[in-house]
Amino acid sequence: MLVANVLFKSPESRHSLTASEAHLSWFEERVVDNLERIDSHLSSRQFEDLRSDRRSLTRPGTPARPLIAVVDDEPVIAITLAEILGRHGLRAVWFTIPLDALAFFQSCKVDLLLTDVAMPTMDGICLAAEMLKTHPECSVFFFSSQSHEAGIRRRVHLLSPNVHLEAKPLQVNSLIHGIEQLLTKA
To answer: Which terms does the UniProt entry file under GO BP (predicted)?
Structure first.
């Protein structure tokens, strides 16, 4: 068997990285960046009234930018979606464990939950239902490879009037348009 060893130059050093080392480095950078964003939101939250405006996590003097929580059990999907949203002017934090997202919702208000429906520990519909108990004004954008199934569609639309269900694979234009529609309805 022939194994290709792909090498990448690390910008901060002169040595080469294998493809798996480069991927791990990329992933670690995204995890650290996401944790810093979460900490930033949580630390700014301690000075604010819990009943304040939904867009309260923006700094004074800056235009309000929606905060979106991305939840998918696959880290690459969660990271990629958060980065796409960031490139479109939205603030995003991502989670791979729904219970971690719920803990975040206890301390911070989000404008929109972007979640996969099928996840192993808690599905996205149950996650949204729990989140909507404390933040009923939040919008929810679901994505699923099973979006055509009547049972899923029914469960999604029973949650709140401000939800959207999109089929996988997501198209960036459709994702951004759907999010904009939900945020303007809220």
So the answer is: phosphorelay signal transduction system
Q: Taking the domains of the chain in order of start, what are their residue ranges?
A: 16-48+66-185
For the segment 19-35, what is each residue's pLDDT rounded down to a tens digit?
Answer: 556 556 766 788 888 88
CA–CA separation, 49 vs 25, rounded Å?
Answer: 38
Q: Rounded distance, CA 141 to CA 161, Å?
A: 11
The second-level CATH assignment, the architecture, of 16-48+66-185 is 3-Layer(aba) Sandwich (3.40)
Q: Could you read off the pLDDT of 123-162 as tens digits, one per residue?
A: 999 999 999 999 999 999 999 988 778 888 898 889 888 9
CA dist., res. 88 & res. 136, Å (int): 25
**Is 112 in contact with 179 (CB distance < 8 Å)?**
yes
Bridge partners, 153 (sequence order): none
